[in-house]
Automatic annotation (TrEMBL):
Catalytic activity from the UniProt record: L-threonyl-[protein] + ATP = O-phospho-L-threonyl-[protein] + ADP + H(+); L-seryl-[protein] + ATP = O-phospho-L-seryl-[protein] + ADP + H(+)
Lineage: Eukaryota, Metazoa, Ecdysozoa, Arthropoda, Hexapoda
Record keywords, A-Z: ATP-binding, Kinase, Nucleotide-binding, Serine/threonine-protein kinase, Transferase
UniProt protein name: cyclin-dependent kinase
InterPro entries the record matches: CDK, Kinase-like_dom_sf, Prot_kinase_dom, Ser/Thr_kinase_AS
Organism: Exocentrus adspersus
Length: 314
């Protein structure tokens, strides 16, 4: 496979849902790339087109149509007999590892800058009628200059208005919107906005705000902070397939009791995303008009959080 010979594998960078990701260098340009290797043989006879997993086909199709500075760029697709390689631009770290490695609470201007970039990426995607459906810190990539980019589009899909029914078994549980946890099959861009709110909270407290270990525990973790939803607080909630009148009653607490905000602006901003009723959550486009994001500028992250690059000398 001639095209693959252009790349030298430097190190294993991680494992995705359906493949291994390597850091590699393009011999011709000298630039680092991320190579996602997908073994095809295990997908044969499973109804996938020519052994290529549906998630890979979906990711390729969607990314080929997206061009945005805060969305990972798919540079090339290469196929051999039993493997498919996706070539992506390379970023140093995912947000989860960055938060794990950093010593302090995220600096307020870096948080603002990251939120602006992520909101812009979502506004762009949603305007192209694409839902990400798996936003979490592991799927956001950061570099030393202060950029953050959406990655891993394996669960993403196009949507149409009015929305059709989709599977509610999407989005990693800790970032899953309450309407999904309650079994709704009709959902729209609000599920990505809820995930974004959870990610913002995690950037402030350096751990997941709602770390459930099952669907019901996940709901209860949310209820304990936001109060058990009722028809008064969320019209129509009792109509969801998995809603139970026997849910324990919790009263809402102040978000500032759970999250150590730098200022009131941050608290106000996150509250517009973490709202029960998806129709009341701000859209990405509306969020971009907020005062909180208006003053955002590219801000360098904490350098100590980035591992020393062992592969550069190879």
């Amino acid at each position: 496979m001639d095209k693959l010979d252009r790349f030298i594998k430097l190190a294993k960078a991680g494992e995705g849902t359906y493949g291994v990701v390597y850091k590699a260098k393009n011999k011709i340009t000298g630039k680092n790339v991320a190579l996602k290797k997908i073994k095809l043989e295990k997908f044969y006879n499973k109804g996938d087109s020519e052994g290529v997993p549906a998630t890979a086909i979906r990711e390729i199709a969607l990314l080929k149509g997206l061009r945005h500075s805060s969305i990972i760029e798919l540079l090339d697709v290469m196929q051999s007999t039993d493997k498919l390689y996706l070539v992506f631009e390379y970023l140093d770290l995912d947000l989860k590892r960055y938060l794990d490695n950093s010593k302090h609470q995220m600096e307020k201007e870096l948080l603002r800058s990251y939120m602006k970039q992520l909101t812009e990426a979502l506004a762009y995607m949603h305007s192209h009628r694409i839902l990400h459906r798996d936003l979490k810190p592991q799927n956001l990539l950061v570099d030393k200059e202060g950029h953050i980019k959406l990655a891993d589009f394996g669960l993403s899909r196009s949507f149409s208005l009015p929305t059709r029914t989709y599977t509610h078994e999407v989005v990693t549980m800790w970032y899953r919107a309450p309407e999904l946890l309650l079994g709704s099959k009709l959902y729209c861009t609000g599920i990505d906005i809820w995930s974004l709110g959870c990610i913002m909270a995690e950037m402030l407290i350096k751990r997941a705000i709602f770390p459930g270990d099952s669907e019901i525990d996940q709901l209860y973790k949310i209820f304990k902070v936001m109060g058990t939803p009722t028809e008064d607080t969320w019209e129509g909630v009792s109509q969801f397939p998995d809603y139970k009148p026997s849910f324990p009653i919790w009263h809402p607490i102040q978000l500032r009791d759970v999250i150590n905000f730098h200022n009131q602006e941050e608290e106000d901003f996150i509250k517009t995303m973490l709202m029960y009723d998806p129709s009341k959550r701000k859209t990405a486009k509306e969020l971009l008009k907020s005062n909180y994001l208006k003053t955002a500028k590219l801000t360098a992250p904490e350098m100590e959080a980035f591992p020393r690059d062992e592969t550069e000398s190879e």
